[in-house]
Amino acid sequence: MRIGELVTPALLVDADALEHNLATMAVALPGARLRPHVKAHKCTALAKLQAAKGHKSFTCATIREVEGMAAAGLGDDLLLANEVLDASRLGRLDARVTVAVDSLQTIEAAVKGGVKEVLIDVNVGLPRCGCPPDNAGELAGMAKSRGLTVRGVMGYEGHAVGLDDRGLRQELVAASMAHLVKAHAAVGGDIISAGATGSYDINTWANEIQAGSYALMDTAYAKLGLPFKQALTVLATVISVSPDGYAVANCGLKSLAMDHGKPDMLGGGDVLIVSDEHITFVPEGSVAVGDLVRILPAHIDPTVAYHQQLHLFRGDEVLESWDVDLRWW
Amino acid sequence: MRIGELVTPALLVDADALEHNLATMAVALPGARLRPHVKAHKCTALAKLQAAKGHKSFTCATIREVEGMAAAGLGDDLLLANEVLDASRLGRLDARVTVAVDSLQTIEAAVKGGVKEVLIDVNVGLPRCGCPPDNAGELAGMAKSRGLTVRGVMGYEGHAVGLDDRGLRQELVAASMAHLVKAHAAVGGDIISAGATGSYDINTWANEIQAGSYALMDTAYAKLGLPFKQALTVLATVISVSPDGYAVANCGLKSLAMDHGKPDMLGGGDVLIVSDEHITFVPEGSVAVGDLVRILPAHIDPTVAYHQQLHLFRGDEVLESWDVDLRWW
What we know:
2 copies of one chain form a homodimer. Chain A is of the alpha/beta class. The first copy, chain A, folds into 2 domains: 3-11 and 228-323, Lyase, Ornithine Decarboxylase, Chain A, domain 1 (Beta Barrel), CATH 2.40.37.20; 15-216, TIM Barrel. Chain A is built from 9 helices and 16 strands. In chain A, the strands form 2 sheets. In chain A, strands 1, 9, 10, 11, 12, 13, 14, 15 and 16 form a 9-stranded mixed β-sheet that branches. A 7-stranded parallel β-sheet of chain A has the order 2-3-4-5-6-7-8. In chain A, α6 (136-145) crosses α7. The longest helix of chain A is centred in the middle third of the chain and has 22 residues, at 166-187. The radius of gyration of chain A is 21 Å and the shape is elongated. Chain A starts with 9 loop residues before the first strand and ends in a 6-residue tail after the last strand. At the A-B interface, β9 and β12 of A face β9 and β12 of B.
């Protein structure tokens, strides 16, 4: 199939950029040093390529992601790096499932749901989940007393990983990981899990990195000067051209997320507004009604979650179409 | 089923608020005076309730929406208020389909695809689709010469409908509609289609209003002081409570859209950050891990597009679960 035959808007994945990204990361963080986060792409076909590069343990954000990975035969070591109050769907899976806990209630949920292994989720500065570092040891004791195996700790330095200034990023990652290392000393276990694409080469305290965006990338992460290429674009059709110098393509708020700001036009151009089904832009050169354009989303995760498929392409050819099969909850 | 049995995050529709909204609009704009826009809810079950209130003609934004409405038996008079370059899927439908055109190319696409009826889409000030008002007559002539029936004009005053200041909104709607009325004089036909929830009682120039959000509403439209109630919330579970005074629920960027800004917590509370699967908020009162909370999205359309179902409820009971069956393209 040719790209021009796709119904637009459609998610395109540049095959060479993806291969570059997967290979680059596999050298930097080989095997279990990387626990790829599937929330960024929500696609078991892509996860299989990550596994083929040597990463057999994965990070998930939702129960549905864990279920989908298990069903796809990728259940060697699945971490749900998130708190859940009903773990019964996890306990039923034919897979090794570890769940994050940060409270008595989430420990009880793991026990009740039949999950055997947990990580103590530690707050390392991001105002989100995780227990205070000083409470980690006590929580681990509670978990063990309820029959759970505590594999170690996790702590996400999400307030640090997106900072443009590498020096500042390093400082904040170091400060965050000081909390996590201290908590780990009290908790024990083999695993110190943390990190993201923005700290993959900075976070040397964690022994596994939960990076996900590196595979496909977005414009927010592109600003950090990382060695990963933009592999993901939204393909759209120009449906209207105004004599006032702007054009409109059929890609809007239901095909890309705006929480990290406006997208960019691949090849240049200025995005004026994005509405439900439209993007209005001033093109770099001339465009005509019917032309295909490609748009670089600012934030990959909630962009992919809008789509049914990722289309792997090279040149003008669609090589494979992958289901975004890990959507929803 | 009880609300507490739903997998969270989940979209809830307040049955009484929805009924109030549908009834209020049916009185204000009875029958064909309203051409409900299905892009806001993407749900044929909800569209059937609109039809039961007397609105038999509908507005769609995508080919998929037109297909789904036709398949659901709601194909009496479907307007695709958008430009398409491949109308072949529309031409095959067993339904009355009218498509917006604003260029020679979109006219040719309608002819080639087998669509028989069109509206001339006129730019009335929003930098998006639509021909210049002065070109509308000429375009209508071209469409007629190619064998198409021109039913009239449409023009969306999207730059006006969301303005908080009612006086300013009235001014801009009037200025926009002056363009549309002028274009209509050159084009002819029975239909002058325009408007939205924010101009439903202001736009007296159009003879049919394309409102969609009124049925479920969002916090952006709530600011306008319209007589419609907030019927849509996202149900989420509190998964973590920090000793620092904030809590975290499992509703994030993949379950609500952020293009119109942060959501609000129903019943009060201050939203701090929204990340992929989390909302961090300072609760109004005390909350505990496991509590259910409800979140009011800022923009309904791209919020609903993330979900598989809308759950109609009253009190603690889920009355019906409707598929969001008009998603994608």
